[in-house]
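Technical annex, item 7. During the second reporting period the consortium partners agreed on a shared format for inverse folding records so that results from different sites could be compared directly. Each record opens with the tokenized structure and is followed by the designed sequence. A conforming record, contributed by the partner at site C, is shown below for reference.
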């Protein structure tokens, strides 16, 4: 009886701490601004989270870097890029692209815009703070704050960018660059889905015609410096629920992928973008392409700034069904997943939160 009471008291205390943190609407940055030297208990992750850190063995692994400059050069160069995209998507589930067509000044301004939003006056920023995830624009700290085992050391600005919002719906410090950058990413998305279609030996427009590039949401992340990075994470391990993610990260570093049961660093590369396969792309390719588990570790340097763009139609209500592409299945390779809508998949993924077993298992035949 005593143990049960203690457990209940502990749960109640934690819930109150979480609520008190959320009520500040100042996020993790607010804690750092207040001069916190010891991270609050709600951010402390269990020790097992820090296992499988990359050792010397993992220096043998190198995240593929694909130069898109040769796309229009000649057929041989084009095919070489397609082959690299296939190999990376099947093996790692992630690759970096350079010479992708988005000007460096646009990339830099996007990162500056994210910083401007998070580093503006807290009272102004609070106007966007919400846990109403039906809103097109939402600033919050920790999407799964009240359900996760431990909170992550980061704050987020979430925006629906396709279908495009009215400009005035976006925060002023990053409004213009968000609109501009998203247009560039949508254009790059068309190129990437063409390459992925060809990598699957399908018609170049196959994934486009399946509306994989129709919706775009953006998550601008701000990871303040952490006084005890060995006790918490910037982002808990997870896979992305959409079709494809395009990530712009600054030079601070911290992104890691899980490869052959070891955490491998994805080093920041000036002018590059990180592209990773999402759960829905793994589902429709019948496990050909791998949705990669990844996380962000905390650091004392900070702040780390990034902007992730997710290709998914989760905010565009549709009854369109997705299942393994018929050209990719056969008697020897039968479908591994049942049909689902993007909305059903996204709702289930949201209910599961970050970490834990793959959301794809729920949809396996």
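Designed sequence (site C submission):
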């Amino acid at each position: 009886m005593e143990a049960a009471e203690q457990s209940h008291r502990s749960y109640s205390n934690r819930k109150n701490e979480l609520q008190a943190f959320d009520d500040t609407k100042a996020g993790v940055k607010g804690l750092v601004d207040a001069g916190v030297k010891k991270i609050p208990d709600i951010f402390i992750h269990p020790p097992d989270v820090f296992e499988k850190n990359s050792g010397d063995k993992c220096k043998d692994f190198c995240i593929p870097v694909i130069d898109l400059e040769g796309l229009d050069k000649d057929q041989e160069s084009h095919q070489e890029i397609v082959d690299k995209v296939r190999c990376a998507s099947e093996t790692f589930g992630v690759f970096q692209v350079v010479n992708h067509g988005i000007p460096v000044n646009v990339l830099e301004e996007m990162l500056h815009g994210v910083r401007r939003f998070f580093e503006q006056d807290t009272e102004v920023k609070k106007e966007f703070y919400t846990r109403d995830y039906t809103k097109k624009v939402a600033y919050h700290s920790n999407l799964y704050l009240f359900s996760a085992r431990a909170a992550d050391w980061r704050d987020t600005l979430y925006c629906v960018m396709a279908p495009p919002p009215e400009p005035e719906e976006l925060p002023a410090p990053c409004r213009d660059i968000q609109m501009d950058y998203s247009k560039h990413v949508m254009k790059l998305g068309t190129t990437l889905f063409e390459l992925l279609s060809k990598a699957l030996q399908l018609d170049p427009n196959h994934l486009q015609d399946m509306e994989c590039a129709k919706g775009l949401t953006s998550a601008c992340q701000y990871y303040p410096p952490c006084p005890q990075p060995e006790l918490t994470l910037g982002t808990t391990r997870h896979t992305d629920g959409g079709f494809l993610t395009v990530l712009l990260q600054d030079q601070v570093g911290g992104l890691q992928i899980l490869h052959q049961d070891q955490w491998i660093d994805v080093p920041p590369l000036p002018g590059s973008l990180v592209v990773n396969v999402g759960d829905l792309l793994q589902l429709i390719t019948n496990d050909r392409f791998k949705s990669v588990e990844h996380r962000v570790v905390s650091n004392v340097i900070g702040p780390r700034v990034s902007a992730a763009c997710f290709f998914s139609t989760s905010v565009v209500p549709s009854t369109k069904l997705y299942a393994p592409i018929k050209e990719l299945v056969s008697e020897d390779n039968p479908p591994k997943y049942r049909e689902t809508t993007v909305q059903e998949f996204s709702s289930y993924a949201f209910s599961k939160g970050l970490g834990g077993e793959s959301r794809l298992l729920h949809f396996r035949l």
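The mean pLDDT is 93. The domain at 2-363 is CATH 2.60.120.330 (Jelly Rolls). All partners now use this format for quarterly exchanges.
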